[in-house]
């Protein structure tokens, strides 16, 4: 009887271990399947709906080109002409800015605002020259104005041009706030660093 009891207990333990092992294995498979499904969903999204961070490097470069096309169109150029000037096909451009375009009397036009994420360069008071990801064209316009005023201030040596700024700080996609550098002496230092690096671009591929 004792041997029979020991055998039953031993058998139950073995069975329990097998069940636990099977459950863990199944759980890993389910987790892996969910990850794959999530990746597929992201991959199937049009590029203009995808976050900046989710884009491969090549698509980040294309998005920057597409945004440049969008800027040209908002200044009155046609989609065809802007695409040719920037060097990106219309098809590739539409994959990134398609939700901001609409047709009127057979002509493609651009909406005045968009919610496409882009990575841009700023001069931060604490960190100097950095790249941040912003969530829409409104934030991008604020950064563009700031950088234009930086160039004017450096050329004329007048810091008062920053009075035209509509904001002294900018938030990234995560909500983190960055204070824009407006101190002329500090900007001259950053300008020297910029010249050492070569050509300056307001959009970043990082």
According to DSSP, the number of beta strands is 6
Number of helices: 6
Supply the helix-strand structural class: alpha+beta
Based on Cα principal axes, name the global outline.
flat
Largest sheet: 2 strands, antiparallel
- Can you list the strand order of the major beta sheet? 1-2
Radius of gyration: 27 Å
**Helix share, percent:** 40-55%
Summed over residues and divided by their number, the pLDDT gives a mean of 86
First-residue to last-residue Cα separation:
73 Å
Poorly predicted spans: none
| Structural domain count | 3
Order of SSEs: HHHHEEEEHEEH
User: Which percent range describes the beta-strand content?
Assistant: 5-15%
Molecular structure report:
This protein has helices spanning 2-44, 57-74, 79-86, 90-97, 137-156, 184-197; strands at 101-104, 107-110, 118-124, 128-134, 169-171, 177-179. The chain folds into three domains: 1-44; 50-110, Orthogonal Bundle (Arc Repressor Mutant, subunit A), CATH 1.10.10; 118-197, no CATH class. It is 54% helix and 14% strand. It has 206 residues and is of the alpha+beta class. The chain has six helices and six strands; from the N terminus they run H-H-H-H-E-E-E-E-H-E-E-H. The longest helix has 43 residues, at 2-44. The chain starts with a helix and ends in a 9-residue tail after the last helix. The strands form three sheets. It has a two-stranded antiparallel ribbon. A two-stranded antiparallel ribbon has the order 3-4. Strands 5-6 form a two-stranded antiparallel ribbon. Helix 2 (57-74) crosses helix 3 (79-86) and helix 2 (57-74) crosses helix 4.
């Amino acid at each position: 009887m004792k041997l029979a009891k020991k055998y039953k207990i031993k058998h139950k333990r073995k069975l329990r271990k097998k069940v636990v092992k099977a459950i863990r294995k199944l759980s890993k498979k389910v987790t892996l399947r969910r990850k794959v499904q999530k990746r597929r969903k992201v991959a199937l999204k049009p590029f203009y709906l995808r976050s900046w961070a989710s884009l491969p490097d090549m698509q980040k470069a294309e998005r920057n080109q597409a945004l440049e096309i969008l800027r040209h169109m908002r200044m009155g150029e046609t989609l065809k002409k802007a695409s040719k000037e920037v060097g990106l096909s219309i098809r590739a451009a539409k994959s990134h800015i398609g939700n901001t375009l609409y047709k009127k009397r057979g002509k493609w036009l651009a909406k005045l605002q968009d919610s496409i994420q882009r990575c841009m360069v700023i001069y931060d008071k604490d960190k100097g020259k950095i790249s941040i990801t912003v969530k829409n064209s409104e934030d991008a316009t604020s950064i563009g104005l700031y950088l234009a005023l930086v160039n004017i201030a450096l050329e004329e040596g007048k810091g008062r041009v920053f009075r035209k700024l509509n904001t002294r700080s900018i938030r990234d996609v995560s909500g983190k706030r960055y204070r824009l550098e407006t101190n002329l002496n500090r900007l001259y230092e950053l300008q020297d660093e910029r010249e050492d690096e070569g050509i300056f671009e307001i959009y970043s591929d990082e």
